[in-house]
């Protein structure tokens, strides 16, 4: 069984796995914390992977029935459901009857083994490039050490290859009365339409130790712009505003600035915006005004464009937020986040998603804040 992954890593891992199988993928986050990974192939086939990313997820028969209806309406050729949690017996029966393939961490282990996708999994779990081979040798009873020295005969940086992901719309409906809408237990806020997961660049590194191994390599990235806010890049400018949820009684005071761009660079690693999309980088100087710790995570933020809400775009191996989004009493900290929105977006509104645990936030535009994504 593959190890438990963070929910966002699990989604990204599945997207990469489909990419290795020849699918051009797009990721859509839904308001209830589930995801659709939309796949297209050169032969015209279309697939949808319905993802329940947490270990607490319980995939019900109702989930499967609505997914079957959605796939029928959209003309989906390949329908898959994946979770780190569990499937109800009814869900498994429906999947068997309707030809829906179910994935969990156990079956995904078999997929990795059969397809030789250890490099894809290793990108999210760590470990050395020889681990799968060493494990098999140990299983044969051979006295293999825990690690082996590996010296690559070339510079991996010179062999970097970017894998670009196209982001497009694939609405699942927002009315529970619609058969292809979210299941009854969803608690949507009307948003969470499309989130681009990070582009997954990796380098194939041949290592001669009884096999050809795949080793993950990083990728590179550029910068963003917004009218009147400065910045650079070739993306269209998007005017950004923000909506406060509190005034004088705010728990968090946030002075912020933003800009748009086609690419950003963080600590020498570059990330490109998906095709037909542009990045909006928002940098915030957050001050906690509370007497107790406050939490504001990237998942609680959204950028609303033309009525659709876009969650933050995860960037592999880097983040602009502290762990857990925790801010100590009286603490002031600079953080940043990135959104991927349509390239032709003229304006967007930064907001905090509603919820019981969301602190009162007061946003104040401050052009002295440099809207850059930097290593924290």
Automatic annotation (TrEMBL):
Residues 173-189 have a biased composition (Acidic residues). Residues 4-108 form the Restriction endonuclease type IV Mrr domain. Keywords: Endonuclease, Hydrolase, Nuclease. It comes from Halopelagius longus. It holds the Pfam family Mrr_cat. Residues 167-197 are annotated as: Disordered. GO terms for biological process: DNA restriction-modification system. The lineage of its organism: Archaea, Methanobacteriati, Methanobacteriota, Stenosarchaea group, Halobacteria. It comes from the Archaea. This is Restriction endonuclease. One of its GO terms (molecular function) is DNA binding.
